[in-house]
Known about the structure:
Layout: E1 7-12, H1 17-32, E2 40-46, H2 52-60, H3 70-77, E3 80-84, H4 90-107, E4 113-117, H5 126-133, E5 144-149, H6 156-166, E6 175-178, H7 185-188, H8 190-195, H9 226-251
Parallel strand pairs: 1-2, 1-4, 2-3, 4-5, 5-6
Amino acid sequence: MKQTESHILVIFGASGDLTKRKLIPALYELHTQQLLPEKLAVLGVSRTELTDESFREKMKEFLSVHPQDQQDIDSFLEHLYYQPLSTANSADYTILKSRLETLGNDLDIPANYIYYLSTPPNMYQIIPQSLANVGLNNTADGFKRLIIEKPFGTDLKSAKELNKNLLNYFSEEQLYRIDHYLGKETVQNMLVTRFSNGIFEPIWNHNFIHHVEITSAEKLGVENRGGYYDHSGAMRDMVQNHLMQLVGMIAMEPPVVIEA
């Protein structure tokens, strides 16, 4: 397997729900499997006033609780750092740039930066623009990549406008538009279950299936994500992507090949 280049991962919205419940635990799993580069820094960024140590303590709560994992947890937490930043304050991006340069020098990491926008969608324009204003989109000294979470706009028009705006500051090769939920292993395995299983494949059709009911049940409620749901709504958050993916997996015709 090709070794990932050393880099600094900058997570905007680092005090939010997605970072705590999904991103940091996922990075920890990669760490335990030795799939992260040896020289890596994860720099959390948000308005909340935290230090490196207090950020690590907050993230630690969402990692494994097994005592035998403590050594792995401690070594992983050493990669975590924190920088307070107000997204609307241009001076804070100059401070961020200085912090990145300091981390790079201290940890011997080149200026390879990945920016992950784990933020409300209304930040998807101001953050890339502010990064570009201080030269943090410049690839002359290392790669710069921008990861944007769904929802990508609220409709086709707003999605096109957002895309046009992003391309003013980052090239298409630098942009990664993702939905962290669409890579569920069990969902992806449905293709194998349907088309490579001698029991299910012959009877997965209207002659044997009366109806299909898809239920999306979650253990957690809206909790502190009310502001997000008030703006985006459950239809954009769950139905048009996650549930429609399930519909597609269940009802699609057999693909020519089961790979991208």
